[in-house]
Design a protein that fits this description.
The structure holds 2 protein chains of 2 kinds. By secondary structure, chain A is mainly α. Chain A is built from 10 helices and 2 strands. Chain B has one domain. Classes of the chains: A mainly alpha, B mainly alpha.
């Protein structure tokens, strides 16, 4: 629970940090997070220490404590006037801090939070440019990802790097727009939101599993990580949102028009981006066969994306008949 | 579209069960998908699609043999009780 609090506060800081990053002249020195060694992106989690659980929100706490001891505020402090109890309180707080560090280290083995943080190291300029790139990739010329000593540079500094912020936000926004659209057709109920969320997540998992299986069997794509692939497969949620919103204004003609255009631009974007990363590992011992296979896989992936987008959104826009919610 | 994560789990369980019943001696060797026929390849060359698939089937059968028992029991109980 503590780490999820930290994570959500990290996401909130990310959202606020975008505005401040334009005012800072030089980037912050790299933080050493959880004893993992130097990271190659600015981990902005610890800029605002008063938002972590050891501090206090400024509003309610100042009404409670007495400030007679000048120590960090704690509700009910005036009861513990004894200095021994105050020392015990300090000791307890340091113990809690150490416990937090240990819990984070244990969690790192399962979920790898520091690798996840790399994908969320974005700012608003990156998000705006990336969204523009998804909808109009035709004029962008340099698609290579810049590396910083064998590790990809954080998405904040390189527009071609994949991130997980846009996909997760697009997923949530898609669920909400689906709910809104259902509401305009008087089919809304709160369970529908959950059904849509799990359905979209299930399709994403299937797509990822099939692509990973294909990458293993065809023996290509050794450097394409799972999270990168998740990011690339989830960029289509942005296009689905655009198509669904167009259907609100222009009904099914607008839906199909925006769907076609977004499929084209998304396919172009995916082709350009993944061609750089997939074909860069066709080394000499593949004799050109490996790069052909990866090109075929890429083409199949691009062809499949419009169909998945259509399949996931068609029941929101077109009249496909009454859906029954009974699970057989 | 009532396609939930649970139905995804069911589908995956059925697929893994299907892979687990492919017996190597009685079936796979007869159709030419046995593992000992694949040794006539060089090392370090590109292993073909077929040998990768055979390796995949073999590893799934080896790894998932025991967990499948428990997963199947749990799913059967789940379907019996909750329908």
């Amino acid at each position: 629970m503590i780490t999820s609090n930290n994570f959500t506060s990290a996401i909130k800081i990310r959202l606020q940090g975008g505005r401040r990053s334009r005012q800072q002249k030089q980037p912050l020195p790299p933080q050493y997070g959880y004893g993992q060694g130097p990271q190659f992106f600015d981990d902005t989690t610890n800029i605002y220490p008063n938002l972590q659980f050891q501090g206090q929100p400024p509003g309610p706490a100042t009404g409670w404590n007495n400030q007679t001891f000048g120590q960090p505020s704690f509700p009910g402090q005036q009861i513990l006037g004894d200095p021994m109890a105050a020392m015990a309180m300090q000791y307890g707080q340091t113990l809690a801090g150490q416990g937090k560090v240990i819990v984070n280290e244990k969690l790192e083995k399962f979920v790898s939070v520091s690798k996840l943080k790399y994908y969320f190291a974005v700012d608003t300029a990156y998000v705006a440019k990336k969204l523009g790139l998804i909808f109009f990739p035709f004029t962008h010329s340099d698609w290579s990802v810049h590396y910083n000593q064998e590790e990809p540079v954080a998405p904040r500094y390189d527009i071609n790097a994949p991130d997980l912020y846009i996909p997760s936000m697009a997923f949530v926004t898609y669920i909400l727009t689906a709910g809104y659209l259902l509401g305009t057709q008087n089919k809304f109920s709160p369970e529908q939101l959950g059904i849509h969320a799990s359905s979209a997540l299930a399709w994403l998992t299937i797509e990822l599993a099939i692509i990973l299986l294909a990458l293993y069997v065809l023996n290509i794509g050794n450097s394409l990580k799972v999270l990168d692939l998740t990011a690339f497969c989830s960029y289509k949620y942005v296009c689905m949102i655009a198509a669904v919103l167009a259907s609100l204004i222009f009904s099914s003609l607008g839906y199909f028009a925006v769907l076609c255009y977004c499929s084209l631009s998304l396919d172009f974007f995916l082709l350009r981006t993944l061609r750089v990363s997939l074909l860069s590992q066709s080394t000499s011992d593949h004799y050109g066969g490996g790069s052909r296979r990866s090109l075929y896989l890429l083409l199949v992936l691009c062809v499949v994306q419009p169909f998945i987008m259509y399949w996931l959104t068609r029941h929101l826009v077109l009249d496909v008949g009454v859906q029954s919610n009974v699970m057989e | 579209m009532t396609f939930t994560l649970y139905s995804l789990f069911e589908a995956a369980l059925l697929c893994v069960n299907a892979v687990a019943v492919l017996h190597e001696e009685r079936f796979l060797s007869k159709v030419g998908w046995g593992r000992d026929d694949q040794t006539t390849r060089g090392f370090g060359e590109d292993p073909g699609v077929k040998s990768q698939l055979i390796n995949l089937i073999h590893s799934i059968r080896t790894v998932m043999r025991i967990p499948l028992i428990f997963l199947n029991i749990v799913t059967i109980l789940f379907k019996l009780i909750l329908g």
